Predict the 3D structure of the following.
Amino acid sequence: MEELLIPTEGDESNSNNGSFSPKDSGENMLEWVKNLLRGSSAVSFREWLKDYCKRNGLLALSVFAVVTGCILGFMLRNQNLSTQAKIYFSFPGELLMRILKMLILPLITSSLMSGLSSMDSKACGRMGLLTVTYYLWTTFIAVVVGIILVLIIHPGTGTEMEGHRLGGGPYSTDLVPVLKTTTKTIEPNYVYIMPDENNPKVGRPVFLELTPAPDILYKGVPGSSKQMNVLGIVIFSATMGLLLGKMGERGAPLVNVCQCINECVMKIINAAVW
């Protein structure tokens, strides 16, 4: 028959001292937090947080700016701001967009020419096929998303037309010309497409109730486009990069120039974004 062990008073005191209780757990957790904030762990946490902000600071600030802009936009939507206030709000964003658009051309040309000049022809062909496919798919997705958003949002609805503004005369203040002059100094596109005489931009169509006579001649007015031909620039830069790579030492000076331009443009973009 098994013996029944009865604990003594000393054993009971030892078991009580070594038992687990929620109060002791809370005190231990509090002491651990204090040591974390005061000890070397706090230093390591601060270093980790500093390094994380340094590596992902641009992403965090971008998300914060987007959220802040959306909140301010919804809050000020029904405030009926004046034209002057709208110009003040849109000035930093317009200035940033003009700077980025201004850097598109040197960034595309320098990066493509310097990158493709150091690649193999077979790899370049495969890369070119993937690039064209990616460009077509992204363009298709952008068109579909744009059409859907236009049908949902209806941009321009409720906007006052320029001719229906009260007062009749041009709206101008002391600061508005300064802002316009500042934005005009940063031109988003320095390469324009010349007017095409063979394919002119026709004017506004006029519909007549009567059938026009056969001797009426229509004359088209040549037009111009301020949009950049990005696809043509990409094809030209890629071709130049491939040919510079095949030229070897003779094309090395121009490749070095393109690499220097690419580094300078990236530094300018980094400074503009920050």
In short: The mean pLDDT is 71. The CA atoms of residues 59 and 65 lie 10 Å apart. The chain has two domains: 24-80, 83-152+173-193+222-274. The two ends are 83 Å apart (CA to CA).
